[in-house]
Amino acid sequence: MKIKKYKTICVSDTHLGSRDAKADLLNNFLKHHECDNLFLIGDIIDGWKIQQNKWKWKQSHTNVIRRILGYAKRGTRVTYITGNHDEFLRPFVNQFSLGNIVVCNQAEYRDIDGNFLLLTHGDMFDGITRLGKWIGFLGDSAYDFVLWVNTKFNYIRHRLGFGYWSLSKFLKHKVKKAVGFVFNFEQNVTEYGKRKGYDGVICGHIHTPEIKMVGDMIYMNDGDWVESCSALVEHEDGKWEIIYWNKIV
């Protein structure tokens, strides 16, 4: 397969160190794509799993790190934006850079079409996370449980000859609809971006890939590498697109 070149690639929520990280797929995606700018928009390494003694680091996770370092070595500007699961890096932001790799809490980017964009993981705009870390940990554990149920459920479906169905994504969207009027993540993050003078926002955190307008603000979410296995890319002509990578090629 021919390597495809983009101006910018954004990925987040890879959760390396967790058992559900789709590191093989991510490594394969990175292998077949190149870019001038690589934005890692939080929750790349799952530090919460260390605190919970659920650390599951595999060779495939190491391969992803090596692939990212390879990007930087070949001249790609790599920006690592911290998230809530890798918040252990936040005390070190703006204190060091490693070659073409910079660690920060938020970043700015002007795209090919001239839009001035804020890049942030998004956890600070999540009302549930802001209520307290213990609620965040409870949500993480509940999500892990749903993924476990989802795995067993789909094993049975596979044995019966049916295709994959994401129980956790189904429940997540149901919950989002129920509490959307209280915790409107997309509205919160775009309103903040507008107040700060940006034309749009790129984020992750909620594991739901999306490109749309929220009012007069551009909202883009690159998804995750646990379920959707998606990346947000900027083509050389300025077009933004979500790419799904669900198989090894």
Key traits:
alpha/beta, seven-stranded mixed beta sheet, 34% helix, 249 residues
How would you describe the overall organization of this protein?
This protein has 249 residues and is an alpha/beta fold. Helix content is 34%, strand content 25%. The chain has 7 helices and 12 strands. It has helices spanning 23-31, 47-51, 59-73, 127-130, 133-159, 167-179, 185-195; strands at residues 4-11, 33-41, 77-81, 97-98, 101-104, 106-110, 116-120, 200-203, 210-214, 217-221, 230-234, 240-244. The strands form 2 sheets. The chain has a 7-stranded mixed beta sheet. It has a 5-stranded mixed beta sheet with strand order 6-7-8-10-9, covered by helices on one side. It is globular.
List the helices and strands and how they pair.
Blueprint: E1 4-11, H1 23-31, E2 33-41, H2 47-51, H3 59-73, E3 77-81, E4 97-98, E5 101-104, E6 106-110, E7 116-120, H4 127-130, H5 133-159, H6 167-179, H7 185-195, E8 200-203, E9 210-214, E10 217-221, E11 230-234, E12 240-244
Parallel strand pairs: 1-2, 2-3, 3-5, 7-8, 8-10
Antiparallel strand pairs: 1-11, 4-5, 6-7, 9-10, 11-12
